[in-house]
Amino acid sequence: MRHLVDITDLTPAEREALLDLGEEMLRHPGDFADAARGRILATLFFEPSTRTRLSFESAMQSLGGGTLGFAEASSSSAAKGEGVADTVRVAGCYADLIAMRHPKEGAALMGALYAPVPVINAGDGGHCHPTQTLTDLLTIRRELGRVDGLTVGLCGDLKYGRTVHSLVNALAAYRDVRLVFISPEELRIPAYMKEGVLRRMSYAETDSLADALPGLDLLYMTRIQRERFADPEEYLRLRDSFLLTPELLRPAGEHMAVLHPLPRVGEISAAVDGDPRAAYFRQARCGRFVRMALIHTLLSGALGPAPARDLREHPGRVCPNPVCITHAEREPRRLFLEEGGACRCAYCEAEA
After folding, report:
1. Spatial distance between the Cα atoms of 148 and 125, rounded to a whole number of angstroms
2. Tens of pLDDT, residues 63-78
3. Which of 158, 243, 274, 306 could disulfide-link 189, Cβ–Cβ 3.0 to 4.6 Å?
4. Every domain of the chain and the residues it spans
5. Which residues face 180 on adjacent strands?
6. CATH number, domain 131-284
7. Buried-exposed string 312-321: b where 16+ CB fall within 10 A, e elsewhere
8. Are 144 and 217 within 8 A, CB to CB?
């Protein structure tokens, strides 16, 4: 049984096959109208969502399947104190597949350890969001014709931005991709990524969107996420760090694409929406079809064995990340990754 917790759970060949299938489903959706007939997807959303939850439900229904679930933690037994491990075990009694969003980092791995059915990570706190990355990659292929050789600017909240973290991990598998990280000093890309995947990538950091734009093939805008800040004053100080306007876009390349995982809360002017380079609503549409491809692939058992991960259990060791799922669950398994002399929490990747 395969899960999708992180984008790196997929081999490059599996990822490209999913994107190819998503493209085929986008072009010929009717050919797959009965692919999941009689199957059920549980959408367990402990955190608000519009695009991800609706696109999962639309995807399953487009395949002829059914859905059940909840849209907020307060309408589930989490409000009574039930943990993720028990929730997914119960949901697996009623569904063939689970898509889960949770505010705690590492919650998807916790779910995958206990669920009797495949678990798809629909976003776990500020950690990662692999199905958004598949959506992004399909959009990039459709808008620009390739992923190899692109210069990609990622702008906004790079510290807590799970969509950014997943996309960077995916882009590492392509040839000659150069990254430009555009953010305030306080929201720089996390150290664990610089010490990990970014060691084999070419990247630069800046706090100026205007300076970066002329050299980009792709601009990936993100919002400053209020829900990730412990200090409301810091959020208020940083929330208006960037605003993409038609004037700012003028020197950018004619064929550059602007993506955004949405929602936007002021970082892209509505006046940009009419620009042909604004691809974010086309991007949202791609999400339905790439999730159709993923659901169909997981239910059919088409994926081979999962890539091996060297998880070590250390019962006496505690993850230092206060928003890690291990601090919210009763009696969690204390799992860690030991690579190159470093020890990281297997759930949230914080250095332990």
Report:
1. 29
2. 999 999 999 888 888 8
3. 158
4. 7-129+286-300, 131-284, 312-345
5. 153, 204
6. 3.40.50.1370
7. eeeeeeebeb
8. yes
